[in-house]
């Protein structure tokens, strides 16, 4: 066999098409179009303070989209995140009513999310039930608990300092929430793309059986990712509750789909195994800016969801059509 | 009366000649036994008869008239039905629906003419099942039936539209003794009803019990045919294994060193029982057996995929506990699985990523990826196996089967194992890659590795192994040293003979 050798290059020669057909690049073009249209339609759109304030509308969802990306890359899904927010917010509210201080409130919010996520992951991996089934169940369960506890009432008795997390600005009028998202995006991007952990996550998403045969503890990874996803929902609960200063049982209703929309628009395959944090990062802005622009024009929320729906379906259909055309 | 006649049938797949000038004839009211080793071409022949594959050359005559099956549906319409383990059955549909899949009775006239006539369907099903003298309700969902009952449904399906030729591919593989008796009765009924039955089995006892005639295939060629009364079991075995085309195996014999792996009484509730053996440095230990003999399952227990119920494993004299594959990798056991595409490769990922996966932390020296180090490792082992690719970042999916296998062997070699288990390492790969893999096994033992070779290919087992263990129904049936192993003796042991 030693006589037989093949010349194998280290990597493929880069081609221009590689760059232009990258999903991230297409998303950037889309983002540019959205910005252009918005700035034409509304003179206030490109205002520095307006733009920064618009990030309040998506930072909490964007933070959850980061961990949801890891979940979807491993072929799972978590539909319970918005309900976890409700549950965490309710527990924070009850603690606030009992007179808990700010640090304890934050801790309760995060711990509730962590435990709820752990419960999801434990049920999924222990009993080998598909994630979609389990998290549809916990979606009702967690939200249901919130309704049972609060009924029609709202909790608004938060201590004064608690509003800092959701309402404060750091330097140059940049909201704290937004900075937190940027930092977390960098951390998630690093872990997914530059560490062995990220490599294993992709391996699991592409072929869970072969991943297991390669010595990767697949179920442990899934459990940790669901726990992390719960923790991020807990963090979002802290930020959201702090920002609006109240807890109602319908808090963050429908957010799970908005978070998943961000991830899918970001180019993460719902079949698992592919997608990048940078894609999701850009998709967050595409959706955020589009919503912001529409709201500047006083387009009602119901119509907005029509736009988002069209965008999502187009974003999945168009690449398939392009690929089909290229193959011809 | 001859119903079906095949002559000069040949079929090639890339790198393999699966069938070469094969003939076969089936007569009404007779059971024809088709005998041959794994890889002799029996399944390809069945696929041709059922319209799944098209022959490259040759003629198929039904009632003396040539036929050309463009699709499985054509074959089915011509009256040919196959029943095997992988027969397409719909677990969530009822017995009646399964039996009438593709040809359900309709109401036939008026605005509802395309609607299913459930009453006729159920009545017809009852009638067919009654003919088979079995007690299964037409409304039972298939999932609730035993394997044997599902087979019977398959047979009922064949009867329901008057198949004249029924092919049974290892129909008794998963049946209990009692169920086998029931199946024999049904075969007798089919005979009585004038059907031609092609019966494929490895179990000689059952062939002699129910077959009227036999045909032997070997290496895709027709070896002989005759009446069952005029042949003995030994003669059949000799024809099956035969004298082969001189396949030369590059066997490298190195003196077998100290014991590396010691397995004692490894057992599993259903798959294998009491597996004990020793493996030394530089040894190739062959595991032979029929499909379902429990070889892969036992190996996967060694590797931490399946959990054994009892047993001890020692590596270099030290007892180890393997709870999962990463324990096994740490202990120095590597397992190259049989199913390359599902258990082995992560197809969309690159050659480099595949090779480094089991030891990705060790290669990178920490949690942060270092592409240069990874690529260097991939290049080192990829080149050692002469992987043919354009670049190391190429997805494994784009490689040929043989090169995929080389990547997988490279992947496991990179973990620096003491023992490497190769499960069907040359299954379905081209001749060139096959030779390369065989040659490479020589290099492995020269470098002091201990190799377990699980293979269903007899020549490979005989040609490459220093010692051979033959398994049958989950147990070790016999052990051979290289010198004393003959094809006949090995096959006899694998089929349950003495």
TrEMBL record, chain A:
Q: Which topology term describes how it sits in the membrane?
A: Multi-pass membrane protein
Which InterPro entries does this one have?
A: ABC_transp_permease
Q: Keyword annotations for this protein?
A: Cell inner membrane, Cell membrane, Membrane, Transmembrane, Transmembrane helix, Transport
Name the GO cellular-component terms. plasma membrane
Transmembrane segment boundaries: 20-38, 58-74, 81-98, 104-124, 131-150, 170-192, 221-240, 252-270, 277-296, 302-322
Stored PANTHER family: ABC TRANSPORTER PERMEASE PROTEIN YPHD-RELATED-RELATED (PTHR32196), AUTOINDUCER 2 IMPORT SYSTEM PERMEASE PROTEIN LSRD (PTHR32196:SF71)
Per the entry, what this protein does is: Part of the ABC transporter complex LsrABCD involved in autoinducer 2 (AI-2) import. Probably responsible for the translocation of the substrate across the membrane.
Tell me the protein's name.
Autoinducer 2 import system permease protein LsrD
Instruction: Give the organism, scientific name.
Output: Skermanella aerolata
Automatic annotation (TrEMBL), chain B:
Recorded GO MF terms: ATP binding; ATP hydrolysis activity
State the SUPFAM superfamilies in the record.
Answer: P-loop containing nucleoside triphosphate hydrolases (SSF52540)
User: What GO cellular component term, any one, is given?
Assistant: plasma membrane
Q: What is its main location?
A: membrane
* Species annotation: Skermanella aerolata
> In the record, which residues are listed under signal peptide?
none
What PANTHER family has UniProt attached to this entry? CARBOHYDRATE TRANSPORT ATP-BINDING PROTEIN MG119-RELATED, D-ALLOSE IMPORT ATP-BINDING PROTEIN ALSA-RELATED
Q: Which residues form the ABC transporter domain?
A: 4-244, 243-498
UniProt keyword list: ATP-binding, Cell membrane, Membrane, Nucleotide-binding, Repeat, Sugar transport, Translocase, Transport
Q: Does the keyword Cell inner membrane apply?
A: no
Q: What topology does it adopt in the membrane?
A: Peripheral membrane protein
| Pfam families xref list | ABC_tran
InterPro entries for the chain: AAA+_ATPase, ABC_carbohydrate_import_ATPase, ABC_transporter-like_ATP-bd, ABC_transporter-like_CS, P-loop_NTPase
State if Cell membrane is listed as a keyword.
yes
Q: Which gene encodes it?
A: rbsA1
Q: Where in the cell is it found?
A: Cell membrane
Domain of life (superkingdom): Bacteria
Protein name, entry field: Ribose import ATP-binding protein RbsA 1
């Amino acid at each position: 066999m030693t006589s037989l050798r093949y010349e194998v290059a280290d990597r493929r020669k880069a081609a221009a098409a590689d760059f232009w057909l990258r999903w991230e690049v297409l998303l950037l073009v889309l983002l540019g179009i959205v910005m252009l249209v918005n700035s034409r339609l509304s003179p206030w759109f490109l205002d520095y303070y307006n733009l920064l304030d618009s990030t309040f509308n998506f930072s909490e969802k964007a933070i959850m989209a980061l961990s949801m990306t890891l979940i979807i890359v491993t072929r799972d899904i978590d539909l319970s995140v918005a309900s976890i927010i409700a549950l965490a917010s309710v527990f924070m509210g009850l603690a606030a009513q009992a007179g808990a201080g700010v640090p304890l409130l934050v801790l309760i919010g995060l711990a509730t999310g962590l435990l709820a996520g752990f419960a999801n992951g434990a049920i999924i991996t222990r009993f080998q039930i598909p994630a979609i089934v389990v998290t549809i169940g916990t979606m009702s369960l967690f939200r249901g608990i919130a309704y049972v506890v609060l009924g029609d009432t709202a909790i608004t008795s938060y201590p004064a300092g608690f509003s800092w997390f959701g309402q404060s600005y750091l330097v140059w009028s940049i909201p704290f929430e937004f900075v937190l998202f940027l930092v977390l995006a960098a951390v998630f991007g690093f872990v997914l793309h530059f560490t062995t952990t990220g490599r294993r996550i992709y391996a699991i998403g592409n072929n869970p059986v072969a991943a297991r045969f390669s010595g990767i503890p697949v179920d442990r990874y899934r459990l940790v990712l669901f726990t992390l996803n719960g923790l991020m929902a807990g963090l979002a609960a802290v930020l959201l509750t702090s920002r609006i200063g109240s807890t109602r049982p319908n808090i963050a209703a429908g957010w799970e789909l908005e978070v998943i929309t961000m991830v899918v628009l970001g180019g993460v395959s719902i079949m698992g195994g592919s997608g990048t944090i940078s894609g999701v990062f850009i998709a967050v802005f595409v959706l955020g800016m589009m919503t912001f622009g529409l709201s500047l024009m006083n387009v009602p929320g119901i119509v907005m969801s029509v736009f988002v729906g069209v965008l999502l379906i187009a974003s999945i259909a168009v690449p398939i059509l392009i690929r089909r055309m290229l193959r011809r | 009366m001859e119903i079906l006649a095949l002559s000069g049938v040949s079929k090639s797949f890339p790198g393999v000649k699966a069938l070469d000038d094969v003939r076969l004839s089936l007569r009404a009211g007779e059971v024809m036994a088709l005998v041959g080793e794994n890889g002799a071409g029996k399944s390809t022949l069945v696929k041709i008869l059922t319209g799944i594959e098209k022959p490259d050359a040759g003629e198929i005559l039904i009632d003396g008239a040539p036929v050309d099956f463009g699709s499985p549906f054509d074959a089915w319409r011509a009256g040919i039905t196959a029943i095997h383990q992988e027969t397409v059955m719909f677990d969530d549909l009822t017995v009646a629906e399964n039996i009438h899949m593709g040809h359900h009775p309709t109401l036939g006239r008026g605005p509802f003419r395309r609607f299913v006539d459930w009453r006729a369907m159920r009545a017809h099903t009852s009638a067919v099942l009654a003919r088979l003298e079995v007690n299964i309700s037409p409304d039972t969902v298939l999932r609730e039936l035993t394997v044997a009952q599902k087979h019977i449904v398959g047979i009922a399906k064949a009867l329901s539209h008057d198949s004249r030729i029924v092919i049974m591919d290892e129909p008794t593989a998963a049946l209990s003794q009692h169920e086998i008796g029931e199946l024999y009765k049904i075969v007798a009924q089919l005979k009585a009803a004038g059907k031609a039955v092609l019966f494929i089995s490895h179990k000689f006892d059952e062939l002699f019990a129910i077959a009227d005639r036999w045909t032997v295939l070997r290496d895709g060629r027709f070896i002989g045919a005759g009446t069952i009364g005029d042949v003995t079991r030994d003669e059949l075995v000799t024809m099956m294994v035969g004298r082969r085309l001189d396949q030369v195996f590059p066997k490298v014999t190195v003196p077998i060193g100290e014991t590396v792996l010691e397995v004692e009484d490894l057992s599993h509730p259903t798959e294998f029982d009491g597996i004990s053996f020793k493996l030394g440095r530089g040894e190739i230990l062959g595991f032979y057996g029929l499909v379902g003999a429990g070889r892969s399952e036992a190996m996967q227990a060694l590797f931490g995929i399946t959990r054994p119920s009892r047993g001890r494993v020692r590596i270099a004299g030290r007892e180890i506990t393997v709870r999962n594959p990463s324990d096994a990798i740490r202990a120095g056991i590597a397992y190259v699985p049989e199913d390359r595409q599902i258990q082995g490769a992560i197809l969309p990922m690159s050659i480099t990523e595949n090779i480094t996966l089991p030891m990705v932390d060790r290669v990178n020296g920490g949690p942060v990826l270092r592409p240069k180090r990874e690529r260097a490792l991939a290049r080192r082992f990829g080149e050692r196996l002469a992987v043919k690719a354009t670049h190391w970042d190429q997805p494994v999916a784009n490689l040929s089967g043989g090169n995929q296998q080389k990547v997988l062997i490279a992947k496991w070699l990179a973990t620096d194992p003491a023992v490497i288990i190769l499960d069907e390492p040359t299954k379905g790969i081209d001749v060139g890659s096959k030779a390369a893999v065989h040659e490479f096994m020589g290099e492995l033992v020269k470098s002091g590795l201990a190799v377990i070779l699980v293979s269903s290919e007899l020549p490979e087992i005989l040609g490459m192994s220093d010692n051979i263990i033959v398994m049958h129904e989950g147990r070790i049936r016999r052990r051979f040293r290289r010198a004393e192993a003959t094809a006949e003796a090995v096959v006899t042991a694998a089929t349950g003979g003495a």
